[in-house]
């Protein structure tokens, strides 16, 4: 054996592998790896595609995938660059204009859009006010559509002519829904939609007039990403880039959490994969100690023996991973097929990445977890052929396992694109495993003393665990990790669904009422109380603009592109309140304590305060209807923007703004079937602007329903994978049990005794694993809630059921899975000597 | 001693134990020529297997030297010793050491496959026919009796035509009748192929079929019988 070229080693490895496979030697490792790769591929595909699908829905809120907006027109090259990248483009210009008719004038918010608008979602309109909605393309040149309230305010009917600037337009339809209007609750004025081609003829848009230019883009994620890169750094001071996530807080936070959940589920699958592969790879190696010793006797060098086993493992890993990825891909197709009625018709295919990630997961898990046992194979002394008690010198496995963990972390990170989540999960898992493993060893050792007095089947069953406490601790940890992953995914599912339920209760306000005049306030409130069970209070609103902070012009302080910049660009809705509004939380300062000087107090929303770099005690100047008002920041408030309640950036101390012209604002719930009563309300209070947000709510609900569905299915996936891995793990511990079973049978033990012993052993193992899982789950969920999901953590008493669940699951699966050990012939022991 | 295939000079083996150092083999020398057969006998713990392990290069002595086919084993590293084993040595073990996942034919083919012989299958097949297992080629070890397993092991040991065959209690796991037939086979093949045989056994009858016999007690050579 002077020379063993790679080709020969490869062909030897292949032949050995095929022979091993035929002899049933590889079943456990193959199965574990298959499950692991299939599960992570399927979950990878499922979450990637679903995520894309959900994002697609969410893009409706922008009317596009990506939006470039600014107060000046986009530079020609900004548009041409997008078109060069193959993106679809649409242009929209928004401005305010007075609309005149024979009955009077009304300030309207006009949107001039080209024929491509909208790129995502659809326009809806009706032939008459409050008639049935239809979807279809927008107005043609020469036409205009308007909201029903403009028809009411100006006593218009379809077919009448209105003038926008100096351009007369024929009112063709009643505008009922613009996809990108939904997020914009506080538009006070009714909408008029016209064709962009007519814009120049209106003469309204002049240099210096307040206009919003919006460039809408649609395309593949790659092209959009490329466009972002090209123009992202070269935006003008007044320009912003937005995608679905930036566009809407509710959608953004729901999507963000869902994404994290799906990521977490795929991480759990990877973790399960790791456990499965670790268990079976160790068995794979142990069963090859003799082979390795014999091959060395036959003249193979250590490196050649290692190479042979390594190649076998690599071939096995590659082949199995490919099959697993294919299975995973098929599984998710089946799933989408089952769900086709509930999901958007077109879901992106998901590409190759989830399959590659699945394969990489399998290979890295195999390499990471099989390497230490494999390295041990190289150290099997050839003398083992004479003395079977010779085992390989124990390795300094720390380094190798460290490398395995690192590799696992790398996969998790790549899969989740979330370093924090990966750290929390991996670090939490590791610390938990080490701590609990140590405790477990101590516990097992103290069990020894109890054992002496118990009955035979307990002694036999527990003896099995206690004889090798380190191995038993390893098994309990492995099963514990499986239970933990399953429990964690189940736990978070419930938590997320509850959070969303809270966020969108059945009767979330679906209408806003603006511009309620002080004279109408009481009458309106009384009328509202008849219509709606729990209307929000009527909040006074005074439009005002923030001009100075501590004497400095605000524009010099605020960075471009920040939330603060957006807030000061327009009038803020200022209000006053004696009590902290519901859903607001005081973060710093006091709610109206006597201030040190004569300046009134103002309460500032905390994110805006951060963006404007405001501190308690800062002096602010607002311009309200041409008058300056000074106030001092007396507290900072956190606002729940997810609630459909009126929310305010600035709340003044009572008695500060009362002398200014004020209107009132509220929100309320009206059942969809009572929509007609809205018309009555609007007739009774013609000055009041009523905004319907039902469409937004419906859209949000449908997205959340989709996410919920996805989460349920992912949970099922993880549970199924967990059970499969549990079985694989039990199979991996079979050898020792077969030997013990045969020996006991040979010594005359009855089958019943063996069953009882087995039951005792696995039930105890399961209970311990369940306990570990419960502790670990609480620990990790605490970290996750706090650092990844931004949820309030509380204890989960049902986790205390986990030891019982573990005992049942592991006990049942253990007895089932090791049936062979009970039926084995005692001759086996005599043969093996 | 120019024709010696295996020479041991002043071999000692010392191991560490709880009571301090323990010498399990004391200052032992021997030389074997091609075609010789040597039996090493002694009670359990007398150092037989230790000596076999040293002679075969599976382990290294604390003192002394072993030369196998002209190579000083102590001067070689483990991989180089592995090469010597591949070229010159065959083994038969008490516990057979067949690979469970390979059938009889594949077990015998293994040494030839490791060397890359194209005719591995034919040669293994022929040798299995020779040891009387022509009908059991595709049987797995667990489907074979102890005697049959040992025949497979013997075929495997001879298939690569080694210069020296080491046999460690080759009949130890077999009944006396089967053991008899296995030892017949072993000596027949040894004669046919002209290999040197080193046999560890506590079966005196088997030992006396060898040309030479050494007896160990507590690691000391107490008897050396030459024909």
From TrEMBL, chain A:
Cellular component GO terms, alphabetical: plasma membrane
Keyword terms, alphabetized: Cell membrane, Membrane, Transmembrane, Transmembrane helix
Protein name: Putative ABC transport system permease protein
Cellular location(s): Cell membrane
Organism, as annotated: Pseudomonas borbori
Chief subcellular location: membrane
InterPro entries (alphabetical): ABC3_permease_C (IPR003838), Membrane_comp_ABC_pdt (IPR038766)
Membrane topology reported for the UniProt record: Multi-pass membrane protein
Automatic annotation (TrEMBL), chain B:
Mode of membrane association: Multi-pass membrane protein
Database matches in InterPro entries: AAA+_ATPase, ABC_transporter-like_ATP-bd, ABC_transporter-like_CS, MacB-like_ATP-bd, P-loop_NTPase
Cell compartment(s), UniProt: Cell inner membrane
Lineage top rank: taxon: Bacteria
Molecular-function annotations in GO: ATP binding; ATP hydrolysis activity; transmembrane transporter activity
Ranges for domain ABC transporter: 6-227
One GO cellular component, as annotated: transmembrane transporter complex
Record PANTHER family: ABC TRANSPORTER ATP-BINDING PROTEIN MG467-RELATED, LIPOPROTEIN-RELEASING SYSTEM ATP-BINDING PROTEIN LOLD
UniProt family annotation: Belongs to the ABC transporter superfamily. Macrolide exporter (TC 3.A.1.122) family.
Name the record gives this protein: Putative ABC transport system ATP-binding protein
Taxonomic source organism: Pseudomonas borbori
Organism lineage string: Bacteria, Pseudomonadati, Pseudomonadota, Gammaproteobacteria, Pseudomonadales
